[in-house]
Specification:
The protein is α/β, with parallel strands linked by helices. The chain contains 13 helices and 21 strands. The structure holds cytidine-5'-triphosphate (CTP).
């Protein structure tokens, strides 16, 4: 059956490109339904889209000319993917706030399918902390941002804010739509976030891992039909829907939870930044400051990934390596030492990669090859990792 893409068009000058996008998606065999904001209709006629899609183009939530279904709900149900392209700063702000004051925002809020946003606006508006915060809010909810390109903008400025190329937009959509359900029947086990090792009752040793890569893996694995268990250190993220979450704090708790789940798992992703050292004897009461030096005695934690590598039965195992130098050589050593099937090497010196970003630039190391992926959203990276490990 044909898959339906709902395309939301808002009032950026790039709205004219949405007509070409519609035509390209139709040629690829997708059904396309278009919803416009009222302001967008001043830039391009709804009729242009209707002529291409052979459907009514929706603008007003309360338009009842065609049928008496609750249209925003029926469109939301019908959508296999929803993309807002171009998305203005105003639309992005409304979607981040969960507003539903027209057909586009109402349908977006009601839709439960994979969602995408392709921003297009002036560089200063894009770089404004308000827009950046809204994009981060949306990304943290699993909405995939197809980042804008740099170039000459309609306002005459040159900089970021140009709608991503139609090729990139179509690639993001089709990768999502064609990989759906390809993990049906698979059990995926994922670790995410940092661990905390107590020094005393009010202090701990930890690291800045946000958990975003692991949560993106969990969300995408679920969207692809897998049964997902996420063992998560302390993070500030909302777990994706329909994923079993086991919260842990210390490396030892994480090891215990993962070992218990390991035998049932088919694909395993060790995205957590597990502490390498812990205090075997944390102080029972708060340590008071005294001399100028404080010496803590640390012991090695168990290497969970290495344990998994040694106890493999049928599992496919993906490890992560963060490096600041000799990326590929160090990562290759880890791959061998921990008996991984795939190792994701993360260069911490690269802009937009690693801790706390919504994007990641990684190299995938397998026995046969090393493949560098372009800088893209953690959700897009996650899908490729899932497909790569499953393909092994
Ligand atoms: N890992 C683990 N158990 C630990 C430490 C790390 O399972 N106690 C996993 C991580 O989840 C990650 C991979 O091992 O998948 C990272 O390897 P590691 O050797 O810890 O990398 P670094 O911490 O970067 O180590 P090194 O100091 O050797 O570079």
């Amino acid at each position: 059956m044909k898959k339906t893409i709902v395309l939301g068009v808002s009032s950026s000058i790039a709205a004219y490109k949405s007509a070409q996008l519609t035509s390209d998606l139709l040629k690829l065999g997708y059904d396309v339904e278009v919803i416009m904001t009222r302001h967008a209709t001043q830039l391009i006629q709804p009729l242009t889209f209707s002529a291409l899609t052979h459907h009514k183009t929706y603008v007003d939530t309360f338009d009842r000319q065609v049928n008496y279904d609750i249209e925003h709900i029926s469109l939301a149900h019908k959508a296999d993917a929803f993309i807002a392209a171009p998305a203005t700063a105003n639309l992005i702000a409304k979607l981040a706030a969960g507003l539903a004051d027209d057909m586009l925002t109402t349908t977006f809020l009601a839709a439960d399918c994979p969602k995408f946003i392709a921003p297009a606006m002036n560089t200063a508006m894009l770089n404004n902390p308000a827009t950046q915060a809204n994009l981060q809010t949306l990304a943290a909810r699993g909405i995939q941002i197809i980042h804008s390109a740099s170039g000459r903008l309609a306002c005459g400025d040159t900089g970021a804010g140009k709608l991503a190329s139609l090729t990139d937009i179509i690639a993001a959509l089709s990768t999502q739509l064609e990989s759906q359900a390809s993990l049906a029947g698979r059990r995926v086990l994922i670790s995410a976030g940092p661990t905390r090792e107590a020094i005393d009752p009010v202090r701990f040793i930890s690291n800045p891992s946000s958990g975003r890569m692991g949560y993106a893996l969990a969300r995408q694995a679920r969207l692809m039909g897998a049964e997902v268990t996420l063992v998560s250190g302390p993070v500030e993220l909302t777990p994706p829907p329909a994923v079993r979450v086991i919260p842990v704090v210390t490396a030892a708790e994480m090891a215990q939870a993962l070992k218990q789940e390991y035998a049932r798992a088919d694909l395993v992703f060790m995205a957590a930044a597990v502490a390498d050292y812990y205090l075997p004897q944390p102080a029972g009461s708060k340590i008071k400051k005294a001399e100028s030096m404080l010496t803590l005695t640390l012991s090695r934690t168990e290497d969970i990934l290495a344990w998994m590598g040694d106890h493999k039965t049928h599992q496919k195992l993906c490890g992560f390596a963060m490096e600041t130098e000799n990326l590929l050589a160090n990562a290759r050593q880890k791959f061998e030492r921990k008996h991984c099937d795939l190792l994701v090497a993360n260069d911490l010196t690269e802009a937009g990669a690693g801790f706390g970003h919504d994007t990641n630039a990684v190299s995938l190391i397998s026995r046969q090859s090393v493949r560098k992926l372009p800088l893209q959203s953690k959700d897009a990276v996650a899908r490729q990792l899932l497909l790569a490990l499953e393909a092994l």
